[in-house]
Amino acid sequence: MVKQVVVERMLKHIRSTTGFVTVELAIGIATLAFGFLAAVSALGVFLTQLNLIDTAHNAARAAARGQQIDLPANVSLTQQLQNGAILIVVKRDLDFWSKAIELTATAEVIVE
Fold this sequence. Notes:
The protein has about 110 residues and is an alpha+beta fold.
C-alpha cells in the first residue's frame, strides 16, 4: 500500500508558480512605459519637423518679398536663386535618444 504522503508529493508540482504573475506584471509595465516613451519621442520629432517645414515656408515668403528672415534658435538657412525662384533649405540638428538627427525642410517661391 502506498503511503498518503507519497501520493500528495506526486500530485504537487516540482516548480513553484508563486510570484509568477508579479513578474509578468512588472515586465508588462516596463514594456508599456518604454513603448509610451518611444511614442512620445517620435511625436516630438514629428512636431519639430512640422515646425521646420513651416519655418521654411515663412522664410521663403519673406525672402521673396525682400523682408528680413527671423529664424528660431538652432536652425540654419541656405538661400539660392534659381530661374527667378528662391529656394530655401532649412536644417536643424536634433538629439534623439543620444543619436544626432538632421532634419531638413525646403521651400521654393517665385520672386515677386
